[in-house]
């Protein structure tokens, strides 16, 4: 078990001030202690705990690789700036900002998923993790998993269909790289990674008991899913492509909704599946539909961008309802009729620059 605790802001300020002469120190004291030393980041900034499992080692055993923004390699190439959890290993991350349950998805986990070209379509080499959140670092709520894949291991170097794992991380490649490209890491339509909505935890026992406050999440824990050793919410055994020695590789965690961002004027992007299996997409704004910027409304499936007009033109979605505050679209087909899993993502921004995003694993 490895525990890494970053230097406190006060200690860092004192160390910097102490390096200067007494005259200069006087001015620095007033400036440094009046404001935060560093701007607050929208990524994980602290490794609170790292408990690696078997089959990890240098240079991929450094948990500091999980801090900061994603450094993805795109659909077909992985990143080398990752930490490998090892079989059954776990990583607990802390944040400058307080993650909160706001409109749409609230944070994105970037694992090192890699696209695999099969005979008919692109699948994803997937090594998946359970995702848990905590307010106090003691009590945890784990996102409920729904697995829709084969009932036996596929072995290493094969792939899973996009959307095989609902509310897990590890089956969506990372397109955003904060060092080499301008792909927005805070928009799952283009960024890749698996986005999570804290609303999915409303019925978790720790949340119901008041031990985890979905409005104030300070920690995210990522736990490697040992192949064939766990079951989902329906009792189905979960398999991935890691085989006996492969485990999840964590790149980054990005905050989408926090207490500094969420406000009463924020729009909402929402993707959901109804009881018949139709997928719904809605864009709404508390200040009125007119306040949404139509140019920013975006959608993708499996990271393939489709404009909203094309969604309607090609019949992927149809208009279900238009109200003074928003518009709702619905697929004419059901997930069962689609016949395979997929990942949908959407986002929109209002005229004031407030944004919301969402992502869903579409499963039959």
Describe this structure in words.
With 364 residues, this protein is mostly beta strands. 11% of the residues lie in helices and 31% in strands. It contains 6 helices and 21 strands. The protein has helices at residues 9-17, 22-34, 188-191, 205-208, 308-313, 335-338, and strands spanning 44-51, 83-84, 90-99, 107-111, 114-117, 122-125, 129-134, 141-142, 146-147, 165-166, 194-196, 217-224, 249-255, 268-273, 278-284, 298-301, 304-306, 318-323, 326-334, 342-349, 355-362. Helix 1 packs antiparallel against helix 2. The chain is globular, with a radius of gyration of 21 Å.
First and last CA, distance = 40 Å
Which class do the helix and strand fractions yield? mainly beta
Mean pLDDT: 90
| Widest sheet: strand ordering | 1-3-12-7-8
Question: What percentage of amino acids are in beta strands?
Answer: 25-35%
What is the chain-wise order of helices and strands?
HHEEEEEEEEEEHEHEEEEEEHEEHEE
